């Protein structure tokens, strides 16, 4: 009974966060979505930050291992760029409030947020770095520092979610249009990056 109530609350919180963002979400909205009263919600989770902590733990627990699996695989560098972009953007479409909240909380807590939630869990970039250096040496890609390439990949994948409110305000784009654009970016981003680095 307790577990199913928690699951119901977490699913409701994820839906409300997605619709209203972290700043716009209220505990009452989450209680209403879960079909419970606010007192019961507070019994399980004292604040929306605590709720988010749980959701973040679950999402990062799935995403980080998957991204590491892609990075450490034996597929070609170009296939790796494709797979990474597809996976990252797909996960963020499911949790579009996540990147902005992480940046806000990390800045607010000066790194304590990531330390608390991720500890020593990181993306293992060594194999990617070696692969980039090998492709540069072979002459298949232009000289680029592996971290520069990774920064370009992660920036192009994450920025639309970080800038979503501004992007929607400036362009008049609704959520359906935004999601359609993100679907297109799953192939547009890797195509753009690969074309930029290959010789």
TrEMBL record:
InterPro entries: Homeodomain-like_sf, HTH-type_TetR-like_transc_reg, HTH_TetR, Tet_transcr_reg_TetR-rel_C_sf. Signal peptide: none annotated. Residues 3-63 form the HTH tetR-type domain. SUPFAM superfamilies: Homeodomain-like, Tetracyclin repressor-like, C-terminal domain. The keyword DNA-binding applies. Gene3D superfamilies: Tetracycline Repressor, domain 2. The keyword Transcription regulation does not apply. Pfam families: TetR_N. Residues 26-45 bind DNA. Keywords: DNA-binding. PANTHER family: HTH-TYPE TRANSCRIPTIONAL REPRESSOR SCO4008, TRANSCRIPTIONAL REPRESSOR. This is TetR/AcrR family transcriptional regulator.
